Amino acid sequence: MTGTFYRLTAKDFAVIEAMLMRRRAFADPIAPMLERKLAESRVIATGAVEPDLATLNSRVIFRAGGGSSQTRTLVQAEASAPVGSGLPVATWHGLCLLGMRAGQSALAERADGPAEEVLLEEVAYQPEAARRAAQDRAAERPRHVLKLVHSAPTADWPLGGRGKIRQTEGDDPGPSAA
């Protein structure tokens, strides 16, 4: 993960920071990669997230080590996505992809093996950009508001008739009418 510039939302940064604190305590081999990710990242506002930026819950299309393309959703934990569709950021590839823009590549340096190049081909779905687009569409739609244009006096009834509030004078049809 060297030589690459990453952009993280405040939430993504906090998730990686919390992971680092937990992993350092257990001398996890991914801790140095977490430290590099935080050091090489810039925190950006949620409103400034581009549609081609990989953040948590983004659906990404990537290629690792020259293999075939894979489509996954970057998730915080494996249990938060259907089996096989999620890529936790606690994995080498997931952590490497987080904060990258489409077309960007980086080396995922593993403690247990050789470094592997990870290329982010496309961000198929970006939640912050999708939310912003939905808000823009909602703001463009005209709001339908009911407006009272006429108020009739209480003495006037439709069609000149005089209505009754309650049935009186033995007009009750009884339970069979229900």
UniProtKB/TrEMBL annotation:
Keywords from the UniProt entry: Kinase, Transferase
Record field: compositional bias (Basic and acidic residues): 132-143
Location of the region described as Disordered in the Swiss-Prot/TrEMBL record: 132-178
GO molecular function list: DNA binding; kinase activity
Origin: domain of life: Bacteria
Keyword Kinase on entry: yes
GO BP annotations, alphabetical order: regulation of DNA-templated transcription elongation
InterPro entries reported for this sequence: GreA/GreB_C_sf
UniProt name for this protein: Nucleoside diphosphate kinase regulator, Rnk
Organism field: Mesorhizobium plurifarium
